[in-house]
Amino acid sequence: MNETKILIIRENLHFLAEMMNYPRVLYNEQEATHKIEAVKKAGKPPIDRYYPLVTGFRLKTYIETGIFTDHETIFLEKGREKCQIEMHVLIREGGTVKDFDALHPLLKEYPEQIMFCTDDAHTFFLNQEHTNRMVKKSLDLGYDRYDVLRATSYNPATHYKILREGDSAGSIIQVNNLKNLTIQATHIQEACVYDEEKCTIPFQKPIHRNNFHTKLITLEKLTVKARGKQMRVIVCEDRKLITKEELSPVHTFDGFVKSDTERDILKLVILNRCQTTLSFMGLKVIPSLKHSNKGLFNSETFQFTSLFV
After folding, report:
1. pTM to 2 decimals?
2. In angstroms, rounded to a whole number, what is the distance separating the alpha carbons of residues 83 and 233?
3. In the 3-class helix/strand/coil scheme, how is 18-48 assigned residue by residue?
4. Which CA distances in Å does 218 have to 5, 266, 277?
5. I need a surface site. Which of 88, 148, 152, 240 has the fewest CB within 10 A?
6. What are the tens digits of pLDDT across the range 119-164?
7. C-beta of residue 307 within 8 angstroms of C-beta of residue 268
């Protein structure tokens, strides 16, 4: 809480993102409310959220705390409900989860409240496309050109107060035409940083700050004693954010639970890298994904880090 209060007054920090602990927000627990109040007091009100299935009274309670956007809406009707109470919905496309096909009708229905964003994207995805992909798809579907451009430029610029009236020129792109919008040049603060052939922004070697305090995991630590004939498994579907649950017969060996590769029921280990002990073990079934010679899964079609347990 104190860290948020100290950080949010910095000139280069403008809003609070990823308020993911929605139970603490809904029940007014101090850890969440103090963070939100610190942001409001600093005069930086945009607060972003994560609560894809919220609806009805809980949704209204959530937005009343000052949380104005949702970048993980996955169903059209829930997107409409959020827009009706003046929330901003960010249509997300990433390396794994892609919500554009489900949510694009909101572009026409609520053009002032829709933004495009890229989230949880692999580097090779970002190297090929960004929100420009959604711009082109929207135009191909016949949406109004200015509603589309608004979603990827004006709406985020005004909501996050990136550019205000009287400011000097910010980021400007030059395109070949308004049909296929191929980027020919990019200007930042009037300086050309990309000219279709090269990027002039100097490369800066990153400082690696990741800290790992974990110890070697032995096979003995991964054993799970079978306690019955059935077990709960988490069902993951390719390119889907929400998981399901099933009961499945336990596959055992010498009284211990064993992964069942024939049914793609696999043991999943969750390890907190900041601790020295194993924090959680679970089971996951992924019926549509098979093993590959690149590892457990083909990383080009499935992003393992986006799974939820």
Report:
1. 0.74
2. 35
3. EECCHHHHHCCCHHHHHHHHHHHHCCCCCEE
4. 41, 18, 11
5. 240
6. 878 777 777 778 888 999 999 999 999 999 999 989 998 888 776 6
7. yes
